[in-house]
Design goal:
Order of helices and strands: EHEHEHEHEHEHHE
Helix content: 40-55%
Oligomer: single chain
CATH architecture: 3-Layer(aba) Sandwich
CATH topology: Rossmann fold
Distance between the termini: 33 Å
CATH class: Alpha Beta
Strand content: 5-15%
Largest sheet: 7 strands, parallel
Structural class: alpha/beta
Strand order of the largest sheet: 3-2-1-4-5-6-7
Number of strands: 7
Length: about 240
């Protein structure tokens, strides 16, 4: 049965990959979905068109989620249409392979800004419009506890997401707002397109379920954590990697 939702569910980085899968699944379950896309707003609109075509309710937005003013303006537009924010999925992220000794200040700042600061800025902007029972899900990574050479910076940003998740859950528990995270393993998206087939096959071979994830695998975990079925779960990072870690 679809879940009745009064306010909006915002999905950052919702124009493709995991974010688009999350947006589509949540819309099918009755959420009024806001699909955020910054680098590709046309793709975000295409996701919205799919949702509306299937009978759901959705809105496309574009903003730099590392810019506090743009974030506030975007959330304001969402609240103007939907009245409040029921749920937030902090999915926007970037990943660039960089070895230690090759990390420029600009590259470090970008990954920290998109992967970590955006979680803070989006959460803070949405909080005034969230009531009791609202929920937040952040996207982390199983690599937060097992950094890979060349991806150490990315892994560190996702470790920060796990820490923010636990800390925010403690701070917001008194308001009856839950905060959790989903930590995917290797997932077939545009972000992982640079990984060659042999490497992907190797990851699949080490995974108990003998494959890598599809975006829909991760979307199901996000939807569960936003649902009433997870009403007694907060401050947790759920690793969704087929048993690899």
């Amino acid at each position: 049965m679809p879940e009745a939702r009064k306010g909006a569910t915002i999905v950052t980085g919702g124009s493709g990959g995991i974010g688009a899968a999350v947006a589509r699944l949540l819309a099918a379950r009755g959420h009024r979905v806001v699909v955020h896309g910054n680098s590709n707003p046309a793709a975000a609109q295409a996701v919205v068109d799919d949702i509306v075509g299937a009978g759901g309710e959705a809105m496309a937005v574009s903003a730099d989620v590392t810019d506090a003013a743009q974030v506030e303006a975007m959330v304001g537009a969402v609240v103007e249409r939907f009245g409040s924010v029921d749920a937030l999925v902090n999915n926007a992220g970037v990943c660039k392979a960089m070895a230690v000794g090759e990390m420029s200040a600009a590259a470090v700042n970008r990954e920290l800004s998109v992967n970590v600061a955006s979680v803070v800025l989006m959460t803070q902007a949405c909080l005034p419009h969230m009531g009791e029972g609202a929920a937040i899900v952040n996207l982390g990574s199983n690599l937060a506890v097992a950094p890979l050479p060349g991806l150490t910076l990315y892994c560190a940003t996702k470790a920060a997401v796990a820490s923010l998740t636990q800390g925010f859950a403690r701070e917001l528990g008194g308001r009856k707002i839950r905060v959790n995270a989903v930590a995917p393993g290797a997932t077939r998206t545009a972000m992982t397109a640079w990984i060659d087939d042999d490497t992907m096959d190797g990851i699949a071979g080490q995974t108990p379920l003998s494959r890598v994830a599809e975006p829909e695998d991760i979307a199901g975990a996000v939807a569960m954590l936003l649902s009433g079925d997870a009403g007694w779960v907060t401050g947790r990072t759920l690793v969704v990697d087929g048993g690899l870690v």
